[in-house]
User: Fold Protein translocase subunit SecY from Selenomonas ruminantium.
Amino acid sequence: MLSALGNVWKIPELRQKITFTLIMFAIFRMGTHIPVPGVDPTAIEQLFANGNLFGLLDLFSGGAFSKFSIFAMSITPYINAAIIIQLLNVVIPTLEQWSKEGQEGHKKTTQVTRYLTVVLAFLQAIGMSIGLKAAILNPSPVNILIIAITLTAGTVFLMWLGEQITANGVGNGISLIIFAGIVAALPKNIGTIYHYVQAGTISYFSVFMFALIAIAMVVFVVHVENGFRRIPISYTKRVGARGTYGGHSSHIPLKVNQAGVIPIIFASSVLMFPVTIAQFIEIPWVKTVASYLEWGKPLQTTLYVGMIIFFTYFYTAVTVKISDMAENLKKYGGFIPGIRPGQPTADYLDHVMTRITLAGSIFLAFIAVLPNMVAAATNIQGVYFGGTALLIVVGVALQTMKQIEAMIVMRHYEGFMK
Assistant:
């Protein structure tokens, strides 16, 4: 494997792409240390010391939020905008038409996503600035507006950075920025475990168990992420002007985890909302509801699992067009052996998709509550492992490696294929 990685650098174009990606990572990491003007960093650190309410956002931003730097909001407004646009494809005919227009339609959708990102980023920045007003040195409306504009500009710059990586680097730029933020927290987590061991808070056996669970979960996630149900497809022979064509066999790969990490983000956002509101208002019943929805509480865990399963089915139904799949098969002379083309094929594919989505939703729910189980099994607190972070890191790593392999194969270079 090490020799294969070394062989990557022998391809000039691939070497340039990887170097460009690493430079963009360096710019991203430098930006996480540039503070927003007019904010007291000590007050922000105290807020996180009292309970990391925004732990997921801080994780995505590579620690930029806990420092309240210009990249504090990370790329999450862009992710939210992209999800919203994808969901609106179902109800807005124009967006649906653009999705069928190939590259030209993709450009239009991307442009709308950018505009929506700016709007969502500004609204989120205003909310964060007002919510964290106690940490602002001079919380006047003008200063709050300046801070909001600075945070919005940081998100827009990261969006541009991600697009540059996608165009000139390796892999999907937006995903890689999130990946870099999560991986950047790894040294801090290792340092936390080291200090626990030095202080005698945990034993070496606990550290060994933690490492063992971590390795096992990475292997498990890789296995499931690569899991597909392959539906066999046969094509009828057709006689054309240039002779007979068709008559071959293929398959439809239905992914087990079709929804990816989106259901976990949806569920955590919904459950985080009342807890977030309770931090800034003094209404007794809101405080009571928020106390039951704190991370790790039985009610919160139950709702979390239920919502993940629901959103997995919902998002899969929105993104996977079973009827279009069956119609395209019929149009090009394809059929599933033993199943009639048309509606019977759609019903069969829907039945199979429903069954494997159940497995995928249970997998996502298990991964989401994994941090609780790891903490209980090893007694290591304050080290975030599992859930969204694990899925993103493994998914982005697999996607990037596949793209590198594709580039190598295109140049008839063996590299990773040995």
